[in-house]
């Protein structure tokens, strides 16, 4: 019986001349990752399915049997056509490596053996985009990256996450990138004042810890800032490098062309330190979208005031996304005359502290926004209410200034 099955298997194999092409992709990948990279590329001649299978293997290893010119050409070509994540990049064949044709480099959750990122990037004269996330460099702990680079003259986009900067600050890195248009820096700690001087920067995303922030980015149109913790003392909360007492005047008010703003509650609280001007020296005529997280606790009344200051100076705001704080600021006279209400079209509620505050906010928005089209509310919060149906009935009974206004649940 066993002999008959064995004979049948051999017959089936002989009747299928393209047996290699019928192999599952997972098996092909498992085979390729066990081969030296040069041999993995050579498998492209086996069949049509194998032709580009090597381009998606997660481990790239370039060994000593290749000459320096061969390694440069091989790495250039491999990175240009590679698809998917690179989990391991091993290079131990030469001292000086350059990827002369590379325009974009992404190292996410990657492990480098035999070479440093400094050596890689310094050999990429045409590099325009660089992402370094959860990076592992030989000899460094996970998430710890040592950067001593002086700048990238052609770089347009830079993303750094979980990187330890030794001997250099974010300010120095950015100042060495004169063409930088997009900057993302996550999980960082900057002692003292974080200074971003980038005349061409249009997108900035910061998530980390800093004591003070000074922005000199006249062309910035998109800003996202989430502060992980506030300074621990009044001294730490001290003046920025320009000696300005108001955080608004050294950060938010320095953005005349801002179009999109996303900020967390702690950053709002940071902005409120010092003083909150009733009227900023600049009006955000281009600001169309704001997302702000307001926890609304008694300790964060100033954070709410900081958010209101931004609203007051955004007369053309179209979309507002926020968490509704428990503070009933929507019933107070100080907010009823805010000019952003005239153009507001979409309001999205990301969460609310209690039913009373949510109803007060909904009543305020529906009764004072003449161009409102949608009030969007997270249905998960409603499902958790004891009297969800009663809440919905109260929402439906609220009067609406705009004839186009509808309440939508997502």
Query: Please, how many helices?
Result: 12
Radius of gyration: 28 Å
Helix content: 25-40%
In spatial order, strands of the major sheet run 3-5-7-8-9-10-11-12-13-14-15-16
Total strand segments:
16
pLDDT < 50 stretches:
136-148, 234-244
User: Topology as H/E string?
Assistant: HHHEHEEEHEEEHEEEHEHEHEEHEHHE
- Summarize model confidence as the mean pLDDT: 76
Pfam family, one: F-box
Domain F-box: 17-65
Protein name: F-box domain-containing protein
Structural overview:
- Helices cover 26% and strands 23% of the residues.
- The chain is an alpha/beta fold and 410 residues long.
- The strands form 2 sheets. Strands 3-5-7-8-9-10-11-12-13-14-15-16 form a 12-stranded parallel beta sheet. Strands 1-2-4-6 form a 4-stranded parallel beta sheet, with no helix packed on it.
- It has helices at 2-15, 25-32, 37-42, 68-81, 117-122, 170-175, 247-250, 265-272, 301-312, 355-368, 379-383, 388-396, and strands at residues 59-62, 88-91, 104-108, 111-113, 129-133, 136-137, 157-161, 182-197, 203-216, 222-227, 260-263, 289-292, 319-324, 346-352, 374-377, 406-409.
- α8 crosses α9 (301-312).
- The radius of gyration is 28 Å and the shape is globular.
């Amino acid at each position: 019986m066993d002999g008959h099955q064995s004979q049948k298997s051999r017959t089936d194999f002989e009747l299928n001349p393209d047996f290699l092409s019928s192999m599952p992709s997972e098996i092909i990948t498992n085979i390729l990752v066990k081969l030296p990279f040069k041999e993995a590329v050579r498998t492209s001649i086996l069949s049509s399915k194998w032709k580009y299978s090597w381009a998606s293997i997660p481990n790239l290893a370039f060994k000593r049997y290749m000459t320096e010119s061969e390694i440069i050409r091989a790495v250039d070509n491999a990175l240009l056509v590679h698809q998917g994540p690179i989990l391991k990049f091993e290079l131990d064949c030469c001292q000086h490596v350059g990827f002369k044709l590379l325009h974009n480099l992404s190292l996410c959750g990657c492990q480098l053996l035999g070479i440093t990122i400094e050596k890689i990037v310094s050999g990429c004269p045409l590099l325009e985009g660089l992402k370094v996330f959860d990076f592992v460099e030989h000899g460094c702990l996970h998430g710890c990256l040592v950067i001593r680079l002086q700048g990238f003259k052609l770089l347009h986009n830079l993303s750094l996450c979980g990187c330890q900067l030794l001997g250099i600050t974010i300010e120095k890195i950015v100042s060495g990138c004169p063409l930088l248009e997009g900057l993302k820096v996550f999980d960082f700690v900057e002692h003292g004042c974080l200074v971003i001087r980038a005349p061409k920067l249009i997108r900035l995303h910061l998530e980390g810890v800093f004591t003070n922030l000074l922005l000199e980015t006249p062309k910035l149109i998109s800003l996202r800032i989430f502060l992980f913790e506030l300074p621990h003392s009044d001294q730490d909360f001290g003046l920025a490098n320009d000696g300005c007492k108001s955080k608004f005047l050294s950060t938010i008010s320095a953005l005349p062309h801002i179009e999109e703003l996303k900020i967390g509650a702690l950053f709002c609280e940071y902005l409120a330190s010092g003083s909150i001007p009733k009227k900023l020296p600049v009006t955000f005529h281009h600001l169309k979208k704001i997302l702000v997280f307001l926890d609304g606790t008694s300790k964060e009344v100033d954070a709410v005031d900081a958010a209101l200051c931004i609203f007051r100076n955004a007369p053309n705001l179209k979309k507002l996304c926020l968490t509704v704080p428990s503070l009933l600021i929507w019933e107070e006279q100080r907010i009823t005359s805010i000019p952003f209400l005239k153009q507001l079209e979409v309001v999205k509620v990301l969460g609310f502290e209690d039913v009373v505050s949510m109803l007060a906010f909904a009543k305020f928005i529906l009764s004072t926004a003449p161009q409102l089209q949608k009030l969007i509310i997270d249905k998960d919060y409603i499902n958790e209410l004891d009297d969800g149906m009663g809440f919905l009935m109260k929402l439906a009974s609220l009067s609406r200034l705009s004839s186009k206004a509808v309440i939508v649940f997502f």
